[in-house]
Amino acid sequence: MPVTDFEFKEKYRYKNGFGSYVETEAVPGALPVGYNSPQQPPHGLYAEKLSGTAFTAPRHENQQTWCYRVLPSCTHPPFEEDLEGPFNLTKPYSPASLRIIPNQLRWDPFDHDDQTDFVTGLRLIAGAGDPTLKQGIGMYIYAAGKSMNSHSAFYSADGDLLIVAQDGVLDIRTELGWLLVRPMEICVIPRGIKYQVHLPSGPVRGYALEIYQGHFTLPELGPIGSNCLANARDFQAPLACFSEDFGATAASGPNSYSITAKFNNGLFVTKQNHTPFDVVAWHGNYYPYKYDLGRFNTIGTISFDHPDPSIFTVLSAFSDHPGTAVADFVIFPPRWLVAEDTFRPPWYHRNTMSEFMGLIEGVYDAKKGGSGGFMPGGASLHNVMSGHGPDAESCEGARNAELKPMLVGKGSCAFMFESYLMVGVTEWGLKTCRKVQSAYNEHSWNGVKVHWKRPEGASTDGHLLK
Ligand SMILES: [Fe+2]
């Protein structure tokens, strides 16, 4: 079925389409028609432009949204640094604090944390580059047990955040409207957009990927044609929704709204006397969106050999070099394998790209699950040119399997953040979390057997001129 059967039912309406130009108003007539910045916008609102790209970015890349709100975003006192911020990095953030090592790493499922909300429960596990240069990525684990305070909001000036829900439901209020994000759904919150995360089903855990440059887009389809993989129509944007609480008469009292900014991987906080969720209407193409991974139209071989895993790319953040991504978000959903005379799991591999993997649910077909294996809520990192591939048991199974049509990954979905950057691991990721599996290499690949048999009469010196 090309849609996930969610336990937690949808509660919002959306606008469908990836990269569409959207206009939405919670109150009729709130959007000015034909122009953007009237002398006095309708209903006494302020016009505020949110630029997601440089003004002069080429038209096909240009992203902006006009917001019509009760008060503009600048109306707050100065920010103050929150030195107790949750990123567990040497403060202030420095790329030099990352440990860049070639070891293959795998993590047991990360702990839930009942004491944190989405922001205080974000943990930078690995990354590369520098937000101040708008170059690089951050990879996060989140675990939260509490909804964010209803008088708080968070935004990242560092980049766009792709959130992969793994356990528990995220009910996300953004400036531009609400998104419900359940396991098997993802969302992207673009740089600068404020949001507040509620937990309607209890504690949550999941993964996130931040890109410090550019924006996510759909991969090219090439000879595949004009459909398949993630179809544009299946991405969903929120509808305008607003609160009224502002000024000296604010029901909640003066300076009761706490705004936290993530800025160069540090946190800064200000208090203001009005809700940030006061956007009555907006129009533009810079907005948060969500996507049901169950709608991904998986493509694979119908003859032999399986294509590169890029065939499973949902979203890509392009670098300046065509075809080489700052980051790809790739999934391994349930799919049919029919390849003849083919080693069907992912092949053994060394990659100029780095590969961070997580598991939303089920068992990944190239790795054993269960205790000490690759488990939902756990992760792995295979850095630039570090060898990886099926573990010994999976390899032997695949070498000897009867090659009938087979549905793999039923009830399962693994994913990968793949990047052209060499990725470093934080102190939290290497030590503090205490989830690194020390015997990952040994358990996975020590048992890989030698099957080589030199044919009779063949020599080892065939390269010599005779
Ligand atoms: Fe790989």
From TrEMBL:
Its EC number is 1.13.11.5. It is an enzyme of class 1 (oxidoreductase). Signal peptide: none annotated. Residues 13-293 form the Homogentisate 1,2-dioxygenase N-terminal domain. Keywords: Dioxygenase, Iron, Metal-binding, Oxidoreductase, Phenylalanine catabolism, Tyrosine catabolism. Pathway: Amino-acid degradation; L-phenylalanine degradation; acetoacetate and fumarate from L-phenylalanine: step 4/6. Transmembrane segments: none annotated. SUPFAM superfamilies: RmlC-like cupins (SSF51182). Residues 295-451 form the Homogentisate 1,2-dioxygenase C-terminal domain. The active site is at 306 (proton acceptor). This is homogentisate 1,2-dioxygenase. The lineage of its organism: Eukaryota, Fungi, Dikarya, Ascomycota, Pezizomycotina.
